[in-house]
Amino acid sequence: MQKTPKGLRLHIAVFGRRNVGKSSVLNTLTQQDVSIVSEVAGTTTDPVEKAMELLPIGPVLFIDTAGIDDLGALGALRVRRTYQVFDRTDIAILITEANVWGEYEDKIMQEIRKRKIPLLVIFNKIDLFITERLAKEKLDEEKIPYCEICALSKGWEVTDRIKSKIIEILPDDCLNPPPIIADLIGVGETAILVIPIDKEAPKGRIILPQVQTLRDILDKRASALIVNEKELPRAINNLRKNPAIVVTDSQAFEEVFASVPYDIPVTSFSILFARCKGNLLELVRGAKMIGELNLGDKILISEACTHHPIGDDIGRVKIPRWINQKIGSEISFEVVSGHDFPESLKQYKLIIQCGCCVFNRREVLSRIYKAKSQGVPITNYGLAIAYLFGVMERALELFRLPKQLPLAQGRDYQQGKSAGNVYEKLRLS
User: Fold this and answer.
1) How many Cβ atoms from other residues are within 10 Å of residue 395's Cβ?
2) Quick one: pLDDT band at residue 305, thresholds 50, 70, 90?
3) Residue closest to 162 by CA, chosen among 54, 58, 68
4) Torsion over CA of 161, 163, 165 and 169, rounded to 10 degrees?
5) Which of 57, 110, 127, 400 is least enclosed, having the fewest CB within 10 Å?
6) Mean predicted lDDT score pLDDT of the chain
7) Could you tell me the pLDDT band of residue 57, with boundaries at 50, 70 and 90?
8) Could you give the domains of the chain?
9) What is the value of pTM for the model shown?
10) How many CA atoms lie within 13 A of 166 on its CB side?
């Protein structure tokens, strides 16, 4: 891998009506032909992604969307794809023709405002039209930055103006994202990473969460010792000093926790990502709801990857098997993957999300918010497995969570208690 993974990039989404010049603006900003430009409305269908380095911001992912004023059956699908992008947008750019402002722009503004996404408005085609005065006054009143451009202008002047506006609205947590493990170890200390070599591991590689954790350790100027679960006891005994932490793949919980002395902190990659990508406290509460499951309940398994499932897949096979063994009842499971996530979640008693190493934090928090607002508990693979194997308390010791973590009852979730401003709380966690 030569590039920063998408999940660690700032997601900048471009919204607007059909044929207002979204693709032209994106091409101007990146100084590349990222999107197809045509006089025919509706050229952009599925969102077009372009990963690049945007100096001085760093690695970003631009997402060019279809217009939400699209028509017909295919148009409805395009609109749905566009609305999915809102959930993973860190910064939104709304583009309109200079003399046009109406229901469509207001609708996008409403979605962006609801999610508290930083917004930049671009009035395009000023070579043809005079900018709508009332629209500018409205933006000034709401303190939303905007700029007036002709996207077809040559040179870097337009690019630099847009870029400077993006920097103005850049949220602090995009510049300083939560660490994976770096705050849990000291400079010069050693972390042991337990990486089973099973069917999930691609030949000649280790999987992305393990790679990203390893990089975080190296950035901390600490050391990493990588072993499989069979060699873990020997590795600990060979060290002159106890490791600062042991991190394991969740599937090896039982064997690893039995091998690690109680004075050494131990957790899993998936639990580290529950904290880094989402809201650890809320996901812990969700894991505890496994004990509330009953015969006939339905669980949603949500995978960020769209990989081809293997025979003993963790989400489709192992977790369902362990839950049914633990509960002693037949629970039904439904699986979704990629950016697809049901709008209505009330049919589910629990949502179990993967570690989301390929998602940005905004999308994970959006899913937590959706679940919470509809009264459905949500957790992730690592926390669910830790609960099922009875090691969750030990796996969470190093995070200093409240000693008596309240277990929200099913009726509290169903009534959506405390869901009012929960997204803001989750975003700040």
Assistant:
1) 25
2) confident
3) 54
4) 180
5) 400
6) 83
7) confident
8) 6-175 (3.40.50.300), 182-270 (3.40.50.11420), 279-428 (3.40.50.11410)
9) 0.72
10) 26
